Amino acid sequence: MTVNKIISLLCMSFMLVSLTSFAQDETMAQADDWHTYISEEHKYKIDFPAEPTEQTQTIPSEIGPLNLAIIMHDASFSGEDNLIYMVNYTQYPEGTIHSDMEAMHDQIFRGAVDGAVSNVGGKLISEEPIEVNSFPGRKVKVDFQDGANVITMKCFLVNDAMYIMQTICETSKDDNERMKQFFDSFVLDIKNE
Predict the structure, then answer these.
(1) What is the CATH number of domain 3-188?
(2) How would you class 79 by CB atoms within 10 Å of its CB: exposed for 0-12, middle for 13-18, buried for 19 or more?
(3) Dist. CA 21–CA 35, nearest whole Å
(4) Helix 105-119 and helix 3-18: axis angle, to 10°?
(5) Element spanning 52, H or E
(6) Residues 136-178: pLDDT tens digits?
(7) How, if at all, do strands 53-59 and 66-74 pair?
(8) Tens digits of per-residue pLDDT, 70-126?
(9) β-strand pairing of 149-158 with 66-74
(10) Nearest to residue 169, comparing CAs of 87, 88, 71, 84?
(11) Residue 134: φ, ψ to 5°
(12) Spans of all domains in the chain
């Protein structure tokens, strides 16, 4: 199995998790009531509109076991502008995928983006290079459900881990303030040296 296929499968897992079984019946939180989620283990923090759920799992692959942490808030029942807020953290086996492997960056992100688009039967709207703490990344928008919804993702390759933040919203609510607040609140406590 190629690196692209492994990343594609991971993106499929993320998308499937985002579309299933995390229903929470909550009232919409106000902007100043957001919950700051802190992961000391994975060295980041990010704000969610309410306390998110956590799920961890290990997926076997040809390059070794992949450790996943999925942090999510399903806002689809709360009248929120965004339906889903999610962060996925994937730890790759040492020496397989790393941010120091600059020649592989395009291949790694191409696999992540193409996998995400394909696995939801969507259409790529936009893609641009971004970075956090000098680590490489991509910002992606995907048309989902024939124009009804938009998935916005920010992916970062940090040492031997991938961080993927995403929101899903109705197309008419794309680029809303709460989406921006979510993405802008991401703080990575790792420096690229």
Answers:
(1) 3.40.1000.10
(2) exposed
(3) 21
(4) 40
(5) none
(6) 999 999 999 999 999 999 999 999 999 999 999 999 999 999 9
(7) antiparallel
(8) 999 999 998 899 999 999 999 999 989 999 999 999 999 998 899 889 989 999 999
(9) unpaired
(10) 84
(11) 70, 10
(12) 3-188
